Amino acid sequence: MDTTLVYETDRLLIRPTNVEDASFILELLNTPKWLKYIGDRQLNTIEDAAAYIETKMLPQLQLLGFSNNTVIRKKDDVKIGTCGLYDRVGLDGIDIGFAFLPQYEKQGYALEAANKIKEAAINDLGITQLSGIATQDNIASHRLLEKLGLRLVGPIHIPNDDDELLLFSL
Q1: In this structure, CATH architecture of domain 3-126
Q2: DSSP SS3 for 124
Q3: pLDDT tens digits, 101-130
Q4: Distance CA 159, CA 138 (A)
Q5: I need a labelling partner for 153 at 20 to 30 A (CA). Which of 22, 102, 167, 170 fits?
Q6: 67: closest CA among 17, 141, 6?
Q7: Burial of 141: CB neighbours in 10 Å, binned 0-12, 13-18, 19+
Q8: Sheet harboring 130-135: ordered strands across?
Q9: Hey, where are the domains in the chain?
């Protein structure tokens, strides 16, 4: 793994997701909030999750040098969430996204990870247009995007998604 892509904060290690994270990704992508706010990715087995990582996450990492990251709590090496940068069809700029297991929410981990990824996007990767999208009822994500300095632009529809989303931009 390219160690230049590993980021560290006081409490967290943030590194590119890989197939060894398949069981964690299976758990995260089947949490109630993921299913409600992001959508069902039809991952039912560790093999499904590994294939998802190989076909959806790793190609963007190889092509653009950034993608989904696994967030690991340093004090016990527990995988607690994801935070990454995504090149989404139908969205101007690069999307910053995040999701955490329920037991690690409301502890500042998402803001800590997202701030680090935002900083890396701007300073290390040269990304000049950073966006965030969230469903209209995902108030926690709206608040986090605003804490990152992104401002609400308005509603947006992206291809292959029936939901009207809210677009935030830096």
Answers
A1: 3-Layer(aba) Sandwich (3.40)
A2: coil
A3: 999 999 999 999 999 999 999 999 999 999
A4: 20
A5: 102
A6: 17
A7: buried
A8: 7-8, 12-16, 69-73, 78-86, 94-100, 130-135, 165-169, 151-156
A9: 3-126
